[in-house]
Please model this.
Amino acid sequence: MQVAQAGDYEGEKVAEFVQEMTRDYGFASEQLVDLLAQAERKQGILDAISRPAERVKPWKEYRPIFLTESRIAQGVDFWRENETALARAEAEFGVPAEVVVAIIGVETFYGRNTGGHRVIDALATLGFDYPPRQPFFRQQLKEFLLLAREEQVDPLTLTGSYAGAMGLPQFMPSSFRAYAVDFDEDGHIDIWKNPVDAIGSAANYFKQHGWSAGEPVVARARVAGDRHAEGLTEGLEPILTAAQLRELGWTMDTEIPDDTQVTAFRLDGAEGDEYWVGLPNFYVITRYNRSVMYAMAVHQLAGQLAAARGDS
Model:
């Protein structure tokens, strides 16, 4: 464990930030200076975020990381333990219970891996000592201090990932303030230790990003002709309609209205290329994490959880 280095964030280094928080948000200057002086610069965090990206795994290697027997079995346990909250979230936000469970399962293995860094250390380190993304993380530090004040919790006690993502659903502070809800109505929002609040918050995130209750997520597809590659989407945003995709040689295995905005992609599966069409709800999952494979892992884990629960 790293020895505390009090004073990493004081003096001129944080003066402008303190001035802004005092002027714009009403923080007491002396208290904020004292708080930030207790934040620690963590070289391990800088090393982690600066590390060159690993080779992007193909789908046939990525999928088995998340669709394991233990993740499915423990997801069914989590579902059973929180059945009332999940059913209420589904009724209120329109997001299926299995999707909420899958998100929490992929993010933190149902709360087992939520990160052990103090959030204030992570965000101060990245907000003051990581120039490539300093504006983003400094904004997250602002949001974090605001949420700590709003929730009346000690900001020195809250923990998360090395990037400052927090709790069972791994919300960044800005997402917490925008989407987290007091789902058990006890007067506090606790996504760290309270699965009820975490469940309601994740479901609210999906609803606010456009989840459509009862609508499908993806469709398997077959391709033909010499133009099908033109349908493959470079980004995540849906830019083609289902009708335009069909004109390029794509055939979906489920009926999709012509005017539906879709994302088309190919995955390197265990048995060869897989062609998929992402529907609007698929795009919503990518808003949680901007990765096609992440969204597919969540979707397929959700399906496995529903199937396993049906068999239990």
